[in-house]
């Protein structure tokens, strides 16, 4: 491991510690059988729509069909109807059924649980081989559905790691995932993702990040610049306000100001 990688590894440790101070610890849930395919389908449904619609579409699909085999063998229109809330439902339904058929080929069970024991790079390649599965969907499936040591990088997480200079300022999601995942200790990818995601929403926002109250400030060149250049807040005390009002009243009574407006 190069010196730079060792420095980044230590920095990531500091980042996780700071995030835990702000938001508390995150318990890693156990992975149950079948979770890989469940996660893959839900992540697919979340493409180009919001998480709430994706989750509702997923729930409706699960309620209507007893198994993924039933989804695979159903009429495309029946699948389409259940996921209509996600938008582009016809295309999604066709793509989902094609994916399920390809996974089933040459296997006794319709499942991707076997990927849990494969090296992470192989598992990633396998998922990226499907039409419509990108690095984000693959990384979410690997971490949340199969328990692999991968850091999924969505827009919020990417913003935070760029600002912390953990990756290049122009790095994209796949690059960030590939650079950072091997530097995070086993078992910490889950809390790291969940806490970075929350941090991006609550403090490290696109506009006006709350750097002054961020426990990562010492590690963050972007935040330090923001704090340095932010104009100091002018605190106007009660006495000062009273003094101003008094002066204004004097001008009004002297006939210099009409209607209480000094610009009149
Ligand atoms: S210091 Fe500011 S920019 Fe840096 S991580 Fe914290 S909130 Fe984001």
What does this structure look like?
- The chain is mainly α and 264 residues long.
- Among the domains are: 35-145, Orthogonal Bundle (Endonuclease III, domain 1), CATH 1.10.340; 237-264, no CATH class.
- The protein has helices at residues 3-23, 35-45, 51-64, 68-73, 76-82, 89-104, 120-128, 135-145, 155-163, 173-180, 189-202, 221-229, 238-253.
- It is globular.
- It starts with a helix and ends in an 11-residue tail after the last helix.
- Residues 160, 163-164, 203-204, 209-211, 214, 216-217, 220, 222-223, 226 line the site of iron/sulfur cluster.
- Iron/sulfur cluster binds next to helix 9 and helix 12.
Summarize the SSE layout with pairings.
Layout lengths: L2 H21 L11 H11 L5 H14 L3 H6 L2 H7 L6 H16 L15 H9 L6 H11 L9 H9 L9 H8 L8 H14 L18 H9 L8 H16 L11
The structure holds iron/sulfur cluster.
- What is the CATH third-level topology name of the domain at 35-145? Endonuclease III, domain 1
In round numbers, the mean pLDDT is: 88
CATH architecture of the domain at 35-145: Orthogonal Bundle
Largest sheet: none
Percent strand equals: under 5%
Bound molecules: iron/sulfur cluster
Helix residue percentage: 55-70%
């Amino acid at each position: 491991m190069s010196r730079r990688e060792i420095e980044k590894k230590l920095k990531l440790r500091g980042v996780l510690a700071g995030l835990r101070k702000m938001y508390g610890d995150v318990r890693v849930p156990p992975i149950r059988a079948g979770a890989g395919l469940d996660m893959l389908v839900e992540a697919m449904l979340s493409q180009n729509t919001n998480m709430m619609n994706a989750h509702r579409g997923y729930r409706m699909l699960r309620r209507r069909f007893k198994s993924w085999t039933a989804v695979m063998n159903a009429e495309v229109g029946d699948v389409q109807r259940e996921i209509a809330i996600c938008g582009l439902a016809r295309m999604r339904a066709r793509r989902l059924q094609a994916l399920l058929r390809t996974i089933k080929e040459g296997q006794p069970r319709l499942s991707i649980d076997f990927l849990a024991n494969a090296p992470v790079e192989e598992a990633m390649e396998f998922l990226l081989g499907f039409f419509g599965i990108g690095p984000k969907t693959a990384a979410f499936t690997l971490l949340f559905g199969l328990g692999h040591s991968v850091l999924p990088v969505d827009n919020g997480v990417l913003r935070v790691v760029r600002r912390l200079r953990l990756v290049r300022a122009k790095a994209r999601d796949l690059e960030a995932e590939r650079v950072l995942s091997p530097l995070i200790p086993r078992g910490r990818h889950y809390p790291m993702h969940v806490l970075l995601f929350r941090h991006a929403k609550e403090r490290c926002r696109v506009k006006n990040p709350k750097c002054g109250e961020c426990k990562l400030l010492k590690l963050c060149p972007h935040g330090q610049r923001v704090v340095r250049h932010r104009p100091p807040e002018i605190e106007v005390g009660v006495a000062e306000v009273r003094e101003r009002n008094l002066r204004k009243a004097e001008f009004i009574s002297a006939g210099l100001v009409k209607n209480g407006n000094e610009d009149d």
